[in-house]
């Protein structure tokens, strides 16, 4: 008897179906360990134990620690793709808000834990660059280019350099000082660094740089 494609399609799948809820538990466990212990002390076994799953469950989803960590970081990325208020000031305000959201603040902590491993792990470095730094800078560059087309920026503004300022300085703040890069710090960077680079007058910041929450 010949088995057809239709027959195969009708056969029930063998094995236990994948449980999406486990993905979330594994991702959360990886994030918690990264923030608490750092990248070097994270292991697939430790993540599995923290998530309450078997080690094989983790390896079926992610073949390496680096792959798991990058996917975990991706769940924390700020949503800036849709920012387009029609004005540069409005777009900058939304960028600051996105950079200071709870998930963005958590992402900064995770990124700090990963930074020390980047020079030693080429695959992790490549994924970090192509999935985080380059796309984020490209999106901010697009926002600034739209502002230039609206004649809100002069032709001599270095848009590519300006686009990297806020995310770079916020990461550096956490990496170098261990202090949070909250809303007050983001406003300070925008007012005293970004706006002058964009050819605009600096903006005084009324809040202090002592806040601990975004």
Automatic annotation (TrEMBL):
Gene3D superfamilies: Homeodomain-like (1.10.10.60), Tetracycline Repressor, domain 2 (1.10.357.10). It comes from Nocardioides conyzicola. Pfam families: TetR_C_11, TetR_N. Keywords: DNA-binding, Transcription, Transcription regulation. Residues 1-22 are annotated as: Disordered. InterPro entries: DNA-bd_HTH_TetR-type_CS, Homeodomain-like_sf, HTH-type_TetR-like_transc_reg, HTH_TetR, Tet_transcr_reg_TetR-rel_C_sf, TetR_C. SUPFAM superfamilies: Homeodomain-like, Tetracyclin repressor-like, C-terminal domain. This is HTH tetR-type domain-containing protein. Residues 20-80 form the HTH tetR-type domain. The keyword Thylakoid does not apply. The lineage of its organism: Bacteria, Bacillati, Actinomycetota, Actinomycetes, Propionibacteriales. Residues 43-62 bind DNA. PANTHER family: HTH-TYPE TRANSCRIPTIONAL REGULATOR RUTR, TETR-FAMILY TRANSCRIPTIONAL REGULATOR.
């Amino acid at each position: 008897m010949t088995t057809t494609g239709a027959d195969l399609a009708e056969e029930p799948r063998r094995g236990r179906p994948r449980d999406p809820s486990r993905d979330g538990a594994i991702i959360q466990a990886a994030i918690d360990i990264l923030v608490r212990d750092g990248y070097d002390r994270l292991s697939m076994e430790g993540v599995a134990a923290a998530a309450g799953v078997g080690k094989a469950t983790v390896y079926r989803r992610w073949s390496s620690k680096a792959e798991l960590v990058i996917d975990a970081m991706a769940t924390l990325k700020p949503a800036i793709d849709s920012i387009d208020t029609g004005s540069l000031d409005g777009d900058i305000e939304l960028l600051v808000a996105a950079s200071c959201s709870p998930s963005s603040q958590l992402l900064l902590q995770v990124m700090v834990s990963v930074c020390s491993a980047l020079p030693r792990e080429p695959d992790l470095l490549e994924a970090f660059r192509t999935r985080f730094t380059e796309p984020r800078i490209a999106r901010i560059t697009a926002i600034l280019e739209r502002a230039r087309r609206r004649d809100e920026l002069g032709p001599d503004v270095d848009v590519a350099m300006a686009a990297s300022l806020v995310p770079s300085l916020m990461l550096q703040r956490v990496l170098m000082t261990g202090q949070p890069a909250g809303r007050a710090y983001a406003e300070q960077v925008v007012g005293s660094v970004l706006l002058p680079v964009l050819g605009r007058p600096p903006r005084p910041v009324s809040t202090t740089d002592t806040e601990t929450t975004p």
